UniProtKB/TrEMBL annotation:
GO MF terms held by the record: ATP binding; ATP-dependent protein folding chaperone
Taxonomic path: Eukaryota, Viridiplantae, Streptophyta, Embryophyta, Tracheophyta
Localization terms from the record: Endoplasmic reticulum lumen
Organism: Medicago truncatula (Barrel medic)
Name of protein: Putative Heat shock protein 70 family
Keyword Disulfide bond: no
Source organism, top-level taxon: Eukaryota
Keyword terms of this UniProt record: ATP-binding, Nucleotide-binding, Stress response
GO cellular component: endoplasmic reticulum lumen
Family from the record: Belongs to the heat shock protein 70 family.
Keyword Nucleotide-binding carried by entry: yes
Length: 196
């Protein structure tokens, strides 16, 4: 059950566009424009925190992104007013963020298995590290399995339970489904945080 507050339409050359109403007007945005808005907000937040302007960026992408997706990401950075220095794979960024390149107990050379369960994707990557250089050797995953999928499955389950218990079908009521989905997200977070 996809509950998107927008429509996906065909743009120029059949390029997918997001169509939505904003301040009473119909807006059509491509993926790069949406990504640039996110990057702009992230830059603004970082500039506020650092109290310094940011002009350059290194942007991460899923390891399975192809060349055109990577180019679109660079374009989004450019639209956001950033000089994109480099695009790096998310598993590499995760390994660096975890500090594997700096840990004293980590061997100079070896293999790393990175699991990444994101909002909408699940990725597994095999990296090698040698002389503090990370290289993605293999990557696989499911682009349709992530937090959103768990939330949707929970909402579907409880919508069916509600129908079974109360003999009322809420599957045609977007507002009720959004409220149910929000409740499912909150329950999931509560359960998860018990084990943090």
């Amino acid at each position: 059950m996809m509950l998107w507050p927008f429509k996906v339409i065909a743009g120029v050359n059949d390029k997918p566009m997001i169509s939505l109403k904003y301040k009473g007007q119909e807006k059509h945005l491509c993926a790069e424009e949406i990504s640039s808005m996110i990057l702009s907000k992230m830059r603004d937040t970082a500039e506020e925190y650092l109290e310094s302007p940011i002009k350059n960026a290194v942007i991460t992408v899923p390891a399975y992104f192809n060349d055109s997706q990577r180019k679109a990401t660079v374009d989004a950075g450019t639209i956001a007013g950033l000089n994109v220095l480099q695009i790096i794979n998310e598993p590499t960024a995760a390994a660096i963020a975890y500090g594997l390149d700096k840990r004293a107990d980590f061997v100079e050379e070896g293999n790393i298995f990175v699991f990444d369960l994101g909002g909408g994707t699940f990725d597994v990557s095999l990296l090698t590290i040698k002389d503090n250089v990370f290289e993605v050797k293999a990557t696989s995953g499911n682009t349709h399995l992530g937090r959103e999928d768990f939330d949707n499955r929970m909402a579907n389950h409880f919508a069916k339970e509600f129908k079974r218990k109360h003999n009322k079908d809420i599957s045609g009521n977007p507002r009720a489904l959004r409220r149910l989905r929000t409740a499912c997200e909150n329950a999931k977070r509560t359960l998860f945080c018990r084990y943090c």
